[in-house]
């Protein structure tokens, strides 16, 4: 795969999604959207798992260009849209499943919650998302109470080794505990 | 951009209430063959806004879709093939999407629609 992306997605996340696919059937033959797709890792993993239609959405045109190159390299088909997830306006629950690795909101508070709120509006079957383990209770409560979720479950806990990538990263490398969630949205 | 993606997108400017469907301004379109999957098409049929699909396909010169469609047509292979072609094989490569309410133009370059908003539209 070509270079790019934030580098924060550990290699085993697509593997975890593959496990989830085996248990729930949320990907194969489905319409899957990758929110904040970056260089396309999760969307392309979904395509590899047999998603019928994959849409990758990102705010950054450079990331989308890399995602497009990665798809070509893997001979996979992916549909890309440039949009800020916060302003995403879709006609109802047209997507089956949303898969995402949202910004955790360490810098911009609540950024991951905005992604989750939008995802639970457009998905009809499931939303897979990664959030910091420290926010577990808050996520569960908010998803069920405010965000149209019928259920919210942590599938597994992972550790992210976040290298120092940006100027605002003060420490050299940080190890964070992260939950992989599966949410089921209420039907319209 | 395929027409299934188009069928989901709505104008996202704050305050716009009739932002669907976006009109297509076609500078260049391409056709790419995709494997036919009748189960997928049948699942998608109930989620699709038919009229929007018909008009979008027309703006790329594809006139084969019937004006109206109902689920009884899904038994016809001929119908499914046309639906398949319009939904998945036509790509808007260069052009724009136009908001039906405001006339705002969202450019499409290299097949990627740009739905980013200006500061005063959020």
UniProtKB/TrEMBL annotation, chain A:
Q: Which residues form the Methyltransferase small domain?
A: 29-110
Q: Which residues form a coiled coil?
A: none
Tell me the Pfam families matching this sequence: MTS
| InterPro entries with a match to the protein in the record | DNA_methylase_N6_adenine_CS, rRNA_MeTrfase/Polyamine_Synth, SAM-dependent_MTases_sf, Small_mtfrase_dom
Q: Kindly give the CDD domains that the UniProt entry links to this protein.
A: AdoMet_MTases
Name the PROSITE patterns for this protein: N6_MTASE
Report the superkingdom from the record: Eukaryota
GO terms (molecular function) for this protein are: nucleic acid binding; rRNA (adenine-N6-)-methyltransferase activity
Q: Please give the family membership noted in the entry.
A: Belongs to the methyltransferase superfamily. PrmA family.
Which protein, by its recorded name, is this? Answer: Methyltransferase-like protein 5
From TrEMBL, chain B:
MF (Gene Ontology): protein heterodimerization activity
Q: Which domain of life is it from?
A: Eukaryota
InterPro entries membership: Trm112, Trm112-like
Per the UniProt record, one Pfam family is Trm112p
Gene3D superfamilies (alphabetical)? 2.20.25.10
Q: What family is this?
A: Belongs to the TRM112 family.
SUBUNIT field: Interacts with TRM9.
Record's protein name: Uncharacterized protein family UPF0434/Trm112
One biological process term from GO is: tRNA methylation
Q: Which CDD domains match?
A: Trm112-like
């Amino acid at each position: 795969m070509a270079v790019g992306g934030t580098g924060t997605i550990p290699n085993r996340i697509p593997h975890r999604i593959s496990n989830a696919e085996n248990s729930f059937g949320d990907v194969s033959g489905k319409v899957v959207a990758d929110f904040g797709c970056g260089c396309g890792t999760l969307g392309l993993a979904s395509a590899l798992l047999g998603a019928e239609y994959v849409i990758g959405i990102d705010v950054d045109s450079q990331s989308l260009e890399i995602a497009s190159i990665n798809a070509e390299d893997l001979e996979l088909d992916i549909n890309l849209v440039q949009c800020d997830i916060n302003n995403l306006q879709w006609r109802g629950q047209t997507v089956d499943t949303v898969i995402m690795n949202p910004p955790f909101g360490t810098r911009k508070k609540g950024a991951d919650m905005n992604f989750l709120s939008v995802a639970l509006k457009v998905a009809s079957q499931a939303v897979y998302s990664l959030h910091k383990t420290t926010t577990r209770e808050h996520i569960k409560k908010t998803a069920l109470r405010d965000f149209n979720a019928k259920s919210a479950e942590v599938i597994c806990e992972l550790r992210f080794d976040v290298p120092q990538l940006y100027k605002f990263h003060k420490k050299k490398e940080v190890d964070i505990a992260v939950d992989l969630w599966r949410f089921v949205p209420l039907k319209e | 951009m395929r027409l299934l993606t188009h069928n989901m997108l709505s104008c996202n400017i704050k305050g716009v209430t009739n932002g669907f469907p976006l009109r297509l301004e076609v500078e260049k379109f391409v056709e790419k063959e995709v494997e036919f999957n009748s189960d997928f098409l049948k699942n998608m049929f109930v989620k699709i806004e038919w009229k929007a699909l018909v008009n979008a396909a027309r703006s790329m010169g594809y006139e084969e879709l019937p004006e109206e469609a109902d689920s009884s047509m899904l038994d016809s292979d001929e119908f499914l093939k046309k639906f398949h072609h319009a939904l998945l094989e036509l790509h808007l490569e260069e052009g724009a999407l136009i908001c039906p309410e405001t006339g705002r133009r969202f450019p499409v370059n290299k097949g990627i629609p740009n739905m980013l908003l200006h500061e005063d539209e959020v």
